[in-house]
Amino acid sequence: MAKKYTKSDCIALLRAKMQEISLHGEKRYPKRSDFSSEEVNAIKAFLGAWGRALESAGIKPPSEKPKGENQS
Fold it and tell me: Within a 10 A sphere around the Cβ of 25, how many other Cβ atoms?
């Protein structure tokens, strides 16, 4: 039976993976490929697109460009 994730579980997964990556001396954000497909689906379901999920978990700073604005 598949594990039932909560929003808090998803944030904890992202933060734990970020900590693990940092401990290995890597300077990058967690990627989808760092997680099982079940975990990725839960994270995206609760937190939205991957970039927004990282922002929600406090891993990545929020995007400064307002949504829908084109680059010049």
Answer: 6
Query: Angle at CA 24, nearest 5°, toward 22 and 25?
Result: 65
Q: What is the pLDDT of residue 1?
A: 58
Instruction: List helix spans (H) across 1-72.
Output: 7-23, 37-47, 50-56
pTM above threshold 0.90: no
User: Of the candidates 60, 56, 61, which has an alpha carbon nearest to the alpha carbon of residue 7?
Assistant: 56
Q: Rounded to an integer, what distance in angstroms lies between the CA atom of residue 57 and that of residue 60?
A: 8
Contact 71, 53 (CB under 8 A): no
Burial (CB count within 10 angstroms: exposed 0-12, middle 13-18, buried 19+), residue 46: middle
